[in-house]
Amino acid sequence: MKTTLFAGASVGLIILASATTASAQSIDYGAMEQLFNEPVTTSATGSPQRSTEAPVAMEIISAADIKRSGATDLPTLLSRVSGLDVLNAGGAAADISVRGYDRSMSPRLLVLINGRQVYLDHYGYTAWATLPVQLEEIRQIEVVKGPNSALFGFNAVGGVVNIITFNPKYDNVGSVTVRAGMGGHEEISAVKTFKLGDKFSARLSAGAVQMDEWKNTVGVVSNLLTDPARVSANLDTLTQLTDKTELRVEGSWSNVQISEMLSNNTYSPTKYVTSSVKAAVASETKFGTLELSAYRNMLAAKHMVAGQLAKFDNEITVVSAQNLFKLGAQHTFRVGGEYRHNEVNTAPIGGAQIAYDVLAVSGMWTWAISDKLSTTAAVRYDKLDLERTGVFPVAFPMANNALWDRSIKETSYNLGLVYRPSDLAFGRPWSTSAPCS
Amino acid sequence: MLKKTKSGAVAICALALFAAPLAAHADAAKDLQVAGRALTFLENGPTGKATLGVVFDPSKPASVAEKNAVMAALGGGMSTGALTLVGKAVEAGDVGGVSGVAALYVTTGVNAGPVGAAAKGKKIITIGSDMSCVTSGACVMSVSADPKVEIVVSRSAAAAVGAVFKAAFRMMIREV
Fold it and tell me: Which fold has domain A11-419?
């Protein structure tokens, strides 16, 4: 489907490009990790869990792992995770998939930063170079290998990479990094958390990197290549509104140029400008942990497709709410709802807008049957309504906006079973998952 | 020959892996680290320097030995996350009159029923060294660090002393 990139209009593309997120609560990952002597995650079920008890196949890359790795970018880090395939098409261009099927502009792997989607919806892929995060501000990278669409929506059919940054409420970090290397690699970045009084904390980061593009040994037309460069910044604030209620506001921006491989296997000197703003209120109440979040992602992308400039302006707005609670000693539940509005212009043939709205409801139930056995069931229902507004070029076939009026309804579910035959300190629980999306 | 050697090596590795947990033993210092960190997940829990009463039965050598090990591990103050724990030995019969402690650590062998009842009367959290203390409802919490961190909380005992753990913490432990 994606071999005819940007052919006429991007209708087919936008259908692929949908995702939703389940935000992580503001939990103290560091204190939990020290207590349980292992990382904790919310990417498996939406509920905090010890990594060895999560009912999915997952790996967690810790901040210590990142520091020891020597890697200078995310694709290099992820290339060392078993089951992940990384294709490098240039100095900063990479595509990643889970368990095969990797390709240029690879879809299906949902990528999040603190629960906010950074997967690009205008075509349905992740441009890893655009991610506005410095390696030094990452607490852990949670990699779910396999479908988790019942939690995160139908973009997570291949897997999920959830990048968790240091939380300024709990973590005190600060660093300045300067790197230089072969291939003209030059990089500088800074990360700093700070507190103002007892109730306000913030993390500020910024960085710039540039490098030479790989030597052109295969005769690519030179104007399709550009030396990769990126400037990005990120601000993350937490305000304690009451003893049990906090407000987290995040903003990010990145400006990137890159030689990337398009899905028709030609190079493009692509430019991206991304920005985002997100606000989330989380509160511990007697009814559970309530969370309401809203964010907007804005993207301006310029690709060169078959000699034509294709310029996309994509805007996504997501509003979600969830409640996480435990009933009795054995049952944990999550109920959630989400609304998403997504719109993008058609390109390279302009003059129209494609948009869709998604309404989704989801639920999760974990039952700790015994201290050795637990089961998790999650289900999600999405309803997507697509539409097109605008004009058509003269003599364009099917020149009728009504043809775009589609409604897609999809149910996803995940089932997991975790059995721990002993308290052995090694190994991982046996688990299984039967997803449908 | 090579095949035989390989099979032998695999068997030895397997034996070593399964034998490893058998060598594991309770480590007072490790358990106290877990206990101290777990206390920081209490609503309005202790902060800074906190005294841990170590409850023992002087008529039972095992209990006395454990008390001595715990007191030695705590030493002049054990840092456990945001808490610094100091120890105070408390005879089982004196729990009703104890004061100035953030929690009580009940050593194995102590008659947990009366100790738990007395602690509930004084609204003091009890941490059992023995899992049966919490499963019987006498203690609020039981912790063990080896071979894997396990924390068990008695909902009824926690309610009796007014202890409320943070929601995220409750979802990662075992409640009875």
Answer: Maltoporin; Chain A (2.40.170)
